[in-house]
Predict the structure of Iron-containing alcohol dehydrogenase.
Amino acid sequence: MENFHYYTPTRVVFGKETELQTGQLVKECGCKKVLVHYGSGSVKKSGLLDRICAALEEAEVDFVTLGGVVPNPRLSLVYEGIRLCREESVDFILAVGGGSVIDSAKAIGYGMANEGDVWDFYAKKRAPQGCLPLGVVLTIAAAGSEMSDSSVITKEEGWVKRGCNSNYVRPRFAVMNPELTMTLPAYQTESGCVDIMMHTMERYLNQADNMELTDGISECLIRTVMKNAKILLENPKDYEARAEVMWAGSLSHNGLTGCGTDGGDWASHQLEHELGGMYDVAHGAGLSAVWGSWARYVMDARPERFARFAVQVMGVEDTRNAMETAEKGVQAMEEFYRSIEMPTSLEELGVHPTEEEVRELARKCSFDGGRTIGCVKKLDQEDIFRIYMNAR
């Protein structure tokens, strides 16, 4: 077992109609003016934005609004948000949406609390020293950004997708009403389920001496999401299944499933970030498209770990040959992805990169050959290229 720090300051308000408490929750944070940040017209059409604004007015909290966040949130809107917040003297940000909206809100918060270009933090040129406080009303169970320390932004110039992690951006509160996710398209729901699973699998498939309790929590979380992902494919209005998945999304990325490990591998996420940046694909779908190719490329470095995953999570019979059992586990996971209509290759994802484009993906992912990714097996630019090619 590795030493670890576990920090989760986010207050969770979970259940039906909890969004009606938003005004009071914001007021308790002691702010004077709020930016209500959201995505497309769905929060308007559903009436959610009106309910949030009414709750703020009832609590006598002043606010301004900024919509327009898209999947793989854009740096240009972050800049617009920072400008608006400065003009309006905003001191709190309320994200109403899913991971993309929350990530955009976090980036705006960074820009408000630090001098210079906010992109510097995502380009790893310097580290943030603070963030404007923020809260969340969650509408999509997927990214776990409502309790995490992470934010991912896409820069349109060059279509580069990068992340920044710090405890400064952990939200003060997260309002979670599973009913708000019931209108999501099936593809978005199932893509979210993959993202939740992968946040746990990235931490689980590692090179550490793992903690048995954390392993058990992780295994149960993945199995629970798999079970409920299938239920939601058939019955998207199932409240209990929505609730299980929503809570799993938060627990998968608030640090709990990494306690006692080395922090995890995260290569699959890095591989997907470049796909998201270049082709604007759904994050979870991009993850499922590359995961099998990554797993087969690295599992010989930790076959016993992949074999445990196969047995404990996928229900594969232990063949007493770690590599054989591990391969059966990868096959079983790919079969599961297909059962919930998620892709297991770039072709199934709808992306058809040329070899030249694959080399560009590998160049970006390796930061022009300046870094390796992953910990199960450290992957350089050539390794990354081969995994992308195998994923085609």
